[in-house]
Amino acid sequence: MRDFFNKMKNDLGIILNDVQKNAVMKTEGPLLLLASPGSGKTTTVIMRIGYLIMEKGIHPSRIKAVTFSKASANDMKERFAKFYPDLPSVDFSTIHSFAFEVVRNHYRNLGIPFTIIEGDHDLDEGSAGNFQYNKKLMLRHLFKSVVGENVTEDQMEELTTYISYIKNKMIPIERWSEVSCDVPKAEEIFKHYEELKRSDSHHVLLDFDDMLTIGNDVLEKNEQVLRHYQNRYDYFLTDESQDTSLVQHSIIEKMVSTHRNLCVVADDDQSIYSWRGAEPSYLLKFKEKYSDASILFMEQNYRSSEDIVNVANSFIKRNKNRYEKNMFTQNPSQQPIEVKQLVNFKEQSKYLIRELNEVVDLKEIAILYRNNSSSIGLMNDLERAGIPFYMKDADNRFFSHWVVQDILNFMRMAFTDKRPDILEKIHLKFNGYISKQQMQALKQLNNNDSVFDNLLKHVKLQEYQVKLLKASKETFKEMKEMKPLQAIRVIRDRLGYDKAIEKISKSLGFRMDYLVGILNTLEEIATDLESLEDFAKRLKHLEFVLKTAKKKKGHDAITLSTFHSAKGLEFERVYMIDVVDGIIPSKEDRTDHQMLEEAARLFYVGMTRAKKQLTLVTYPYRDGKKVEESVFVTDVKNILDPTRMTKSEPIKKNVKKINGVPFNPNSIKKKEELQVGLSVTHRVFGTGEITEVSEEFISLKFQSKEKKLLISACLEMGLLEPLVHT
């Protein structure tokens, strides 16, 4: 044992602390290794595998290492080869890849061909078909046939997340209705989707989540297959297990049920993927599943300065559903965490550019944000300032979003009002109130006249429409000579686009604040541009810049990333931007205790990316509206200066809060008070009626949507107040 650690020290310069050594040597039976950020997790895991081979005499082929992402699996494989160049490789893979092997062999044995209907063709080796089937195209078709409209990109994202969530949570079909989804008729579309995939008994269609559910089902029902895989490996290791879903845990449990040599590496404080089915509670109940399990805490942070570690450690303790840990470091103090309060949102990019102009090594800088939408305006300003950037998770959907396309179509109408095909795309979104029937009548005319003249002369209109359409014609004519910023504001205000999308949002369940954010970003891009043509060209250029930004990894460029995608990365200096209430935490986060804790974990992940300097950027005004700093920023301020809490104004100090949410003394406090038919007021969703009460959940029907909420969170946080009729 001593020889092994001495050899690693001499050969690789690696010195492990006592907890890391214990993790390496605890090879038999179940082990939960809770690894704080920057605690040398990957090094410890690779050393543990080396110890199994070199000291315990285990052949590498008998060891299986499973991680959450392909990038992590490749990283571990490369690290192992670097540490032990003379040893055969261990079997490193993602859980999806392992499950796919089970599924592929299963269908081969049955003689049934299959086709993967999405994504990565690396997994498709041996599958049948020519990829004529596509998951998103199938869902688009089903949405159109069930709902009667074209699905938007936002709806598509939520629909695929909904489907993946149900499969990863192993929720039976009779309980699908319990899962909240803002997409119209999502449950019906999902059922049709599953039926369509299984419609041909001689040819199976599979999506990525099917690999997990079918793989788990095969291992559950086929004893011979299960024994085959159980006999292949004697030691199982899972990394990033806080991101693992219920069905993934189920597969792993089956694999280790005979030898029980399972090492689970995780950090419950970095579990940030519950929305796609991750099951962090599994870690908290690990001892219930494995009563003889050892639990080790790797709490020493080797990455960050003492300033960052101490504040981050105190911050995450606001969460209650976690293992009690005390992250610490022996790194010296560098610079206190800075909270930068700007005058307003528009100053954010200017401030960042000023800061970045002073930087020598750009690749050691990261700008992190909650939502991808934050990156578009920032990218525009950085590109104009000539500051190179790498975008970790570039998302081109902004430029194809229907709001962006609407604005471009309004501008196209300014250049030619003779095209009914353009008008058809926006006729329901401005105050001409052109109905679908009127639009159909207009399309029958092929005289190459103005669409407004044709409507006024040849189509039956309501009396009030005549004046509106005449005014609209003049407005579009004036827009041609406007600067793009003025044109967008005319579209939003004079033509009534903002009011139109507000109505659409209420009927279809879209987030109005998100759509307004897109419009505000377009205004930012339009600033200082001279013509509508310049604006269209600028959007095209930025779309190209976004695509190429993905290829600048490793270049002398700053990194732009969401908090989610930044996990596992580290930088000398980190700026966390847009840290205001409504973004982190979001309004939705505040409605549920578990969601609020996950938002805090996400904030914690962002904080712990920084090695030496961390700046939190906030502001009191955005788009002309007052916004509050994030409650998480307030927490950080209180940790940095505990005396400031006693300096608060009395009126603020006396407001009782639970997890940063003002407590309502008139709220419902007992489950017995929750009765079907009761009218209530919810802090975020407004007035609604209780439609169902189960053991854990309550269903409510609001004006714009239906919601399923956790009863314990509603009671604990005082979210519901009975509506008193007078």
TrEMBL record:
Pfam families: UvrD-helicase (PF00580), UvrD_C (PF13361). This is DNA 3'-5' helicase. Its EC number is 5.6.2.4. It comes from the Bacteria. GO terms for molecular function: DNA helicase activity; hydrolase activity. Residues 306-568 form the UvrD-like helicase C-terminal domain. ATP binds at residues 35-42. Belongs to the helicase family. UvrD subfamily. The keyword DNA-binding applies. It catalyses: ATP + H2O = ADP + phosphate + H(+); Couples ATP hydrolysis with the unwinding of duplex DNA by translocating in the 3'-5' direction. Coiled coil: none annotated. The keyword Hydrolase applies. SUPFAM superfamilies: P-loop containing nucleoside triphosphate hydrolases. Residues 14-305 form the UvrD-like helicase ATP-binding domain. InterPro entries: DExx_box_DNA_helicase_dom_sf, DNA_helicase_UvrD-like_C, DNA_helicase_UvrD/REP, P-loop_NTPase, UvrD-like_ATP-bd. Keywords: ATP-binding, DNA-binding, Helicase, Hydrolase, Isomerase, Nucleotide-binding.
